[in-house]
Amino acid sequence: MALTKVTSNLTSFDSLLVDSDNTNTTITIESDLDGSSNFSSGIDFVREGEAKGSRIESVRDASAGGVGLKFLTTADNAAEVSGTLTERMRLDRSGNLMIGTTSNDSLFHIESASSTAMTIQAGTNSSASLRLKNDAVDWDVNCQTNDNFAIYSQTASAERLVINGSGNLGMGGGPDTTHRVTVAAEQSSGKRCMLIHSINSGLACVVKNTSGTGAYDPFAFLIDGGNTQVGGIASGAGGTAFNTSSDYRLKENVDYTWDATTRLKQLKPARFNWIADDTNTLVDGFLAHEVEDIVPESITGTKDATKTHTNVVREAGGFILAEGVSEDDWTAGKADAILWTEDDILPEGVSVGDVKTESTYPSDSTWVASLEKDVYQQIDQAKLVPLLVKTIQELEARITTLENA
Fold first, then answer.
1. Digit-coded pLDDT (tens) for 246-262
2. What is the pLDDT of residue 275?
3. Are 280 and 382 in the same domain?
4. Can you spell out the DSSP letters for 107-145?
5. Is 286 within a domain?
6. How many CA atoms does the CB half-sphere of 404 hold within 13 Å?
7. Contact between 48 and 38 (Cβ < 8 Å)
8. Mean pLDDT over the full length of the chain
9. 164 lies in the same domain as 105
10. Dihedrals phi, psi of 91, to nearest 5 degrees
11. Based on the structure, what is the number of domains in the chain?
12. So what's the pLDDT on residue 2?
């Protein structure tokens, strides 16, 4: 069956049927360019007796060429009568989709003069997801079947962040019912839970009691699967206390008759300056290895200890950014930054060639196959207090004996 070209206006008909034996049948609506190098061929959907209904219309870029589509509707009965069409959506010549706007900052742009939202709704006991994907990884922003919100790595098949219905957040593991934020490290990887960066003049972290000046515990340190508290930081109107557990119910073999003076005389208080201190300011203290045999519980670590790290990426200042990274992956990671191009719609203040997405590793980072780092000993000088107190008691007893002689 041959196709018929309609060259005049179709003003009144019940329906138009195009029937063809061809596999590539099309309907062509052809228009001439106007004085602005544009044309607006379209299809109107109109209720009988009214001026307008809705319209799909072509839109041409007069300067660059190329034709897109815009979709227009009438908002109510009055608009149908008056023929007032409002553009609701536009698909431009480059494939960018815009809703509520005729300009865009991305491939898909939604805009409203008031509050706006996009809804993805799943069925009963089902999950709704928005998947973000590039050539290497897949991420899901997910409303789960258990009604939790999650950021889920499809690549690793693992939840990375979860918020439950009570607003409690879990990172590296699920949230619980007690804590507002739960952060868990991967036990097998040796990764730490949190790193807080600050500048010299800034606060790294603030803990605030918003209910008043009463005492509260900003931090608690637990062992035995979280069942036993062994220390904490308590704060109140009178100041802050850095506590370690001392309850008698946790102790046994209690002895009050031991020689403190002999041990105290073995300690070697010293004056020194820290190597990292450019001012060479002298301070009082101890060398950890000189204390560990006298008050071993005050010392953490071993003298001259080191740790070997393998396949390490370091920032310019020496901080370890990642371990277990091959040299090829590090090289590729330094070069995977995404730059703004002429094809992008540039935000204000951004130029072609500026970095759009930072590279995985900084360009000034370094890679080594093996890195041996010192693991420094530490001292808790508060653990020396019992020895000092017992020595003072022994000296006081000796003085009393001499005075009474």
1. 999 989 999 999 999 99
2. 95
3. yes
4. SEEE--SS---------TT--EEEEEE-SS-EEEEEE-T
5. yes
6. 6
7. no
8. 87
9. no
10. -115, 110
11. 3
12. 47
